[in-house]
Fold this protein.
Amino acid sequence: MIEPSGASDPTALDEPIADVEVTRSTDDSPVESRSEVESRSEEDDPSPVEQAQPKPPRIIALANQKGGVGKTTTTVNLGASLADLNYRVLVVDLDPQGNATTGLGINKQVLDETMYDVLLNKLPIDDCIEPTEVRGLFVAPASLDLAGSEIELVSAFSREAKLKTALKEVENEYDFILIDCPPSLGLLTVNALVAATEVMVPIQCEYYALEGLAQLSRNVALVRENLNPGLEIDSIVMVMYDSRTKLAAQVVGEVRSHFGDRVCKNMIPRNIKLSEAPSYGQPVTIYDPSSRGSVAYRELAREISNGV
Ligand SMILES: Nc1ncnc2c1ncn2[C@@H]1O[C@H](COP(=O)(O)OP(=O)(O)OP(=O)(O)O)[C@@H](O)[C@H]1O
Ligand SMILES: [Mg+2]
């Protein structure tokens, strides 16, 4: 048993979050891929109206204002694993560092159009989307100039809803849209939270893992109250888990005591292949499909997509 969190507990929340409601989406039904929806025969579904309405995508913001906790690694590899399950997946890189972009094999230096143009110059998002090596996985790339958008957006009309508006144009094309957020709670992350249908928080199994989570939860609540009703932290993914250390088990216990079954059953182990893969511009599912990291993200994809 883990002792209740106290002031000296390094894994303790920096502030209580008891007042922040955290609930899982009530829709547990499996998500059909776009192709499945389209290929459904009339006998299966006699209603032509329903048939013509593709299911809206699940738009998942991967957020945690702590740096280096596995947001990008999870976005890229969960995205690739969902695509391997035949879902059509778009990764939106909303981090000026562009790590998801390079991690998916796109050379930022040669890009003419990126998410900067989508957010600031009204470029249709479809015009910047690039295919990746993984069938069914696409990326809306970032470049360094996205850093300036935090300031440039301040005076823009409807500045918090730029991404939401942009995604409307392509939402019928994808089953999942994963948004890789920067390590801050600025306007880029707010845009992700406004566009999202759910929030996934990767948490590192380390000291101070829960630091800043109260603030993130508060921001999610603020966005829910003002801009995106129904938004919740739906899932917590424990990453860089090392089963040999007592600390990792303690951190997982602590996180579970706060978030209950919002914590994904599948944890991502610390695995060198996961840190090597980005320098080859590949998800781990291609770089080393049989590695523990790859297997873990495939399992997570099955869990997140409700076993379909
Ligand atoms: N499970 C893992 N095992 C080993 N290394 C990992 C694992 N997950 C992530 N890493 C490595 O940890 C570092 C940080 O991961 P990542 O870039 O995904 O975090 P991030 O939250 O996106 O960071 P930032 O806040 O800077 O955007 C990277 O070098 C990555 O390769
Ligand atoms: Mg990142």
About this structure: The pocket of magnesium ion (ligand 2) is lined by residues 71-72, 95, 99, 180 (CB under 6 Å). Residues 1-12, 14-46 have pLDDT under 50 and may be disordered. The beta strands are 58-62, 89-93, 130-131, 137-140, 176-180, 198-204, 233-239.
